[in-house]
Write a structure and sequence with these properties.
Aspartate Aminotransferase, domain 2; Aspartate Aminotransferase, domain 1; 533 residues; alpha+beta; 7-stranded mixed beta sheet; binds pyridoxal-5'-phosphate; globular; 3 domains; 17 helices; 18% strand
Length: 533
């Protein structure tokens, strides 16, 4: 292997200095020369030594403390892994099934909304692990809950009861429309369970002769079909994939489960025509489409679906895997619509980064489920449930959700003011809470790459990512005040022309908005320059 970058193997010739621009320059000279010889220069942005890196012009003592913290984090991140980014990427290529087109980044540590790569470069994380790290990286209360529970009991299987599992179920029930909860390990598994529960419910219900509604509809057999929406995403396992709209995800694995129907998001009339035929077991809908490009449902649409389901006995399933649990500024994304589902699926942020999924159901749905109908070895373990309880505590702490709303509002306002009408490729800024995005009429991929070069992690979403890109911002809920402006500054001050889109027209996003790389905001806030290696 090439030279390892474990700094413990370097001699103590460590020095550092501040540059005028506020960067802290660190260098390790290797006398041990473990294969590579020469020293390695690492730049740590001085401002990013504290999270967030906003209070830079401070006293010497504060500055020293910030530098010490940066140094510790850098050392911990690097020495813990003992591999360079390139070595990790080479090993990935060799040993892993190539299902992910990963960005060329290897992260070794995270704190708050900052991630550090194997070479010590820091990145502002505006993705939160695709809407997972609701409390940011390394949150103290979450860490305490996880380490305490891990030291007591991690896993017992679902053959036995456990205290964190019932406590979490109780909390979810008390905080929602639901009467009962089933735990899974991911979003796709939650939807898989929801499909099974919906089918079982329809089977049990259709067998009840006294159910007049079903007799009136002239149903002979239990309804098994499913309705879903274009641009919707529900997961990658076969059942959930059958109701995920992206054709390229589904085609290679056909035949999928039969009887899945896709409608335009909002096409109540089309859905109604099909559902009144009596064969549809459930309608799966995201109150705010996430992967599809952040589209909140129109109120009359969700309310119309509820009414239709009430009239026909079809179950209404809200997939809140991405938009739920505070992401929109409400605990549940469906809250402002004033309608409840029969089933709601959750996952991503629930355990703050540990794998979990949950299916929340009404008593009516639950009563159709018997022992042995579904299960999972790992699901709802004491460890993940303890983690999830700590996340719920935080989400439900007074002020947390309000702050998601105000931060999301600031982020949208900032992006709208700076981009809409000013850059010809930006057609819209939309979103709700901290699920925000910028619609472009060109591919967003080059912008994501350029932002990455500049030290900010963003992702894309949307319908046709090659022709109409969507830049998605899904920071964690603890995103500090002013980081919305900060995120904007990243986009605007990216100096790396070679990282910009190749086509001349696509350069516009960057070139039109080039700005000085440093700016004073208030008295103490200064945009740090980012380190490049
Ligand atoms: C709305 C929605 N449902 C389901 C899933 C699948 O979740 P997972 O990746 O945990 O299986 C996702 C993932 O992005 C999602 O956004």
């Amino acid at each position: 292997m090439a030279a390892a970058t474990n700094i413990a193997s370097y001699s103590s010739s460590v020095w550092g200095n501040f540059t005028q621009s506020g960067e802290f320059l660190r260098s390790w000279s290797s006398s041990a020369g473990n294969g590579g010889g020469g020293g390695r220069v690492v730049r740590v942005t001085a401002c990013s030594a504290q999270s967030p890196p906003l209070q830079w012009q401070q006293s010497d003592a504060a500055r020293d403390a910030a530098v010490r913290l940066a140094e510790e984090r850098l050392q911990a991140g690097m020495s813990a892994q003992n591999l360079s980014s390139q070595e990790v990427m080479d090993a990935d290529k060799k040993y892993l099934v190539p299902t992910y087109a990963r960005a060329p980044l290897v992260f070794v540590s995270g704190q708050g909304c900052w991630l550090t790569d194997a070479e010590g470069k820091e990145y502002l994380d505006m993705t939160a692990g695709i809407a997972v790290n609701a409390l940011g990286h390394g949150d103290e209360s979450w860490l305490k809950a996880v380490t305490e529970q891990a030291s007591v009991l991690t896993h017992v299987s679902n053959l036995y009861h456990s205290i964190p599992q019932v406590k979490l179920a109780e909390r979810l029930v008390q905080s929602s429309f639901a009467d009962r909860v089933f735990f899974s390990n991911s979003g796709t598994e939650a939807n898989e369970a929801a499909i099974k529960f919906a089918r079982k419910y329809q089977r049990v219900t259709s067998e009840k002769e006294e159910d007049k509604r079903w007799l009136k509809l002239g149903k002979q057999e239990a309804a098994t079909e499913l309705v879903a929406f274009k641009n919707g995403f529900h997961g990658r396992t076969l059942g959930a994939l059958s109701i995920t709209s992206k054709i390229q995800y589904r085609t290679p694995f056909e035949p999928l489960i039969p009887g899945a129907h896709f409608f335009d998001f909002g096409d109540l009339e089309g859905v109604e025509k099909l559902v009144r035929g009596g064969k549809v077991a459930a309608i799966f809908v995201e109150p705010v489409q996430g992967e599809g490009g952040v589209y909140p449902a129109v109120a009359s649409f969700l309310r119309g679906l509820r009414k239709l389901c009430d009239e026909t006995g079809t179950l209404l399933v809200f997939d809140e895997v991405q938009c739920g649990l505070g992401r929109t500024g409400k605990l549940w994304a469906h809250e402002p619509y004033g309608v409840h589902p029969d089933i709601m699926t959750l996952a991503k942020p629930l355990a703050g980064g540990l794998p979990i999924g949950a299916v929340l159901v009404t008593e009516a749905v639950s009563s159709a489920i018997s022992y042995g109908d579904h299960g999972s070895t790992f699901a709802g373990s004491p460890l993940v449930c303890a983690a999830a309880l700590s996340v719920m505590d935080r989400l439900q702490k007074p002020g947390f959700l309000e702050s998601v709303t105000s931060k999301g509002c600031n982020l949208r306002t900032t992006l709208t003011e700076k981009l809409v009408g000013k850059n010809k490729h930006v057609t819209e800024v939309r979103g709700v809470g901290l699920l925000v995005g910028v619609q472009l009429d060109v591919s967003a991929n080059p912008v994501v790459e350029a932002a990455r070069e500049a030290g900010m992690i963003l992702i894309t979403a949307g319908k046709d990512q090659n022709t109409q890109g969507f830049l998605k911002f899904i920071p964690h809920g603890k995103l500090r005040d002013r980081l919305d402006d900060y995120a904007w500054q990243f986009l605007r001050s990216n100096p790396r022309s070679e990282a910009c889109p190749k086509k001349e027209t696509e350069h516009a996003l960057w070139l039109q908005e080039q700005a000085p790389q440093q700016r004073l905001v208030g008295e103490t806030w200064r945009l740090p320059r980012f380190a490049f290696f």
